Amino acid sequence: MTQPNAPKPWEHAKSGGDSQADDLAARFVESISYDRRLYRHDIAGSVAHARMLESVGLISADDLTAIEQGLREIESEIDTQGDAWPGWRVELEDVHMCIEAALVEKTGDAGRKLHTGRSRNDQVALDLKLWIEDAAGQLGGMFDKLFKSFVSLAQRDGRIVMPSYTHLQRAQPIVVGGELMAWLSAFDRCQRRVAALRTVNRRNPLGSGAIAGSALPLDRDHTAAALNVGSPTPNSIDATASRDAGLDYVYALSMVAMTLSRWAEQWIIYASTEFGFITLDGRYTTGSSMMPQKQNPDMLELIRGRCGNVYGSLVALLTMCKGLPIAYNRDMQEDKRHIFAAHDVVIDCLDMAARIVATTSFNEARISDGLDRGFLDATSLAEYLVTKGVPFRTAHQIVGAAVRLCGERGLDKLSDLSAADVNALSRQAAFDGEPWGDDMHDHLGPAGVVARYQSSGNAGLSGFEAQLAAWVSRTEGQDAKEQTDPS
Ligand code: ARG
C-alpha cells in the first residue's frame, strides 16, 4: 500500500511537494467520497479497454487474463465491502486511481499496462455515460410504479364528477379520472424524454485520451462494440470536454421534478379544508408540535420543495460549463455531485409519489356538494345553442347574460332559468329564432355535461374511459413483462 505521504503514483514530473502535503488541498482535490459509486462502470470500461489493447497486440493474452481477473476480484470486494473497501484511499483522489492502484498491487506489471492509450479524461467521460444509462433505466422503473398507482386510483375513483379549474377559478365539469389521466400524460412524456437520451448520448469516448487521442493503434470500434455504446465519438477534444450527457440527464430530471412539484401543489390544495377533495393516508401527513388538530401534507410539500434542489443541480452544471476552455478542466469533476444528487432526489420523489397516489381517496360527497356553484355548465349551454344554429360568439353572449340574470335573481344554477328567459336573452342578443328546446336541460348539470363530451382526449367520461383502457393495457403489459423477465 502507498503510504499516505508517498508521492502520488502518477506524479513524477512535479517538484516541491504535492497536494497530500496540505490537508485541505488533499480534501479539496479528491472526488473519491462521491465518485466511488462509478466503480462498476469504471471496471466495465477497463475490461473493454484491456480486451481492445490485447486485440491490437499492445498487451499479451496473459496480461489480459491477469487484468480481467484482478478487476473482477476488485469488483466483488467492493460489492461486499462497500465503503469499507481498503482500496478507497483519499490520497489517490478518485475511483479511477483507487481501482488502478489496487489492480497494480494484485497484478504488478500487467496492471501497470492498463492505462495504455487512456487518460482519466476519456475514462471518466465513459464511466459517466454508462452510469447515466443505468440510472435512466432505474428511473424508468420508478415511472412504471407511479403509473400503476395512478391507474389503480383512477379505477377506484375516476368516475366521480368534479369541477375543473383554469386560473384556479371554476371552469367546466370533468371526472376525477380525466385529471388523473392528465398527470399520466405528463409523466409519460417525462419518461419518454429520459428514454430518448439513450439515442443522443450513445457514443464511446474511450480512445480520446487526455485531449488529442493517441499515437498507439487503438481500435475504438472494438471498445464501442464491447461496451454496446454505439459508435466512437468523432472528435477527441469534444469527447473529453463535453458534459452534455450529464446536462441532458439533469434537464430531464428537472422536468420530472417540475411535474411532480406541480402535481404536489395541486393535491396540497385539494387536501386543504377549503377544498376537502382528497384524503391523504396518515403515513404521508404529519402533525404539528403545537396545534393538536393538524394533518399537514408534508410529503407533498417536500416533493414540491426538493424540486428546487434539482433545478439547483441543473444551474450548477450549466454554470460550471459556461466558462470552460474546450478540453478537460478540473471544474468538471464537480459534475458528478450534481448529477448524482439530482438523480437521488428524483428517484425518492417518484417513489414517494407512487405511494401517496396509491393510498389517496377522492371524497365524492364533499366534491359533489359544491358542484352546483360556479356555473360549470355554462360552456355546455353555449354549445347546446350552437347545435340550434346560434353562432358561437352570440351563444357566448347569451349564456353570459344568463349567468348575469341568475346573479340578479339570486339563482345558483342555469337550469333554474326558464325557456322564456333563454329565448328572451337570445332576442336581446339579436338572434332571430327561439333556441330553447325541451332537451336543453340534458345539457345542463355537471353529471349530464361530463357524459356529453365527445372530442377525443376529453376529460369527461368517454375520454377518461378511452385513456384508462390504454393505460390499463400498458401497465398490465408491464406486469406480464415483470413476471417473465428474470432480472
Ligand atoms: N476525478 C476526475 C474527474 O472526475 C478525473 C479526471 C482527472 N483528470 C485530470 N487530468 N486530472 O473529472
List keywords for this structure.
487 residues, mainly alpha, Fumarase C, Chain B, domain 1, Fumarase C, Chain A, domain 2, Ribonucleotide Reductase Protein R1, domain 1, 3 domains, two-stranded antiparallel sheet, two-stranded parallel ribbon, 4% strand, binds arginine
- Please give the alpha-carbon distance between the first and last residues: 38 Å
Q: What is the level-2 CATH architecture name of the largest domain?
A: Up-down Bundle
Which homologous superfamily in CATH is the superfamily of the largest domain?
Answer: Fumarase/aspartase (Central domain)
Bound molecules: arginine
Indicate the CATH class of the largest domain.
Answer: Mainly Alpha
**Major sheet characteristics:** 2 strands, antiparallel
Average predicted confidence as pLDDT: 93
Uncertain segments of ≥5 residues (pLDDT<50)?
none
Can you count the beta strands? Answer: 6
Query: What is the domain tally?
Result: 3
Q: What's the SSE pattern?
A: HHHHHHHEEHEHEHHEHHEHHHHHH
Query: What percentage of amino acids are in beta strands?
Result: under 5%
Radius of gyration: 31 Å
Shape: elongated
Question: At the third CATH level, what is the topology name of the largest domain?
Answer: Fumarase C, Chain A, domain 2
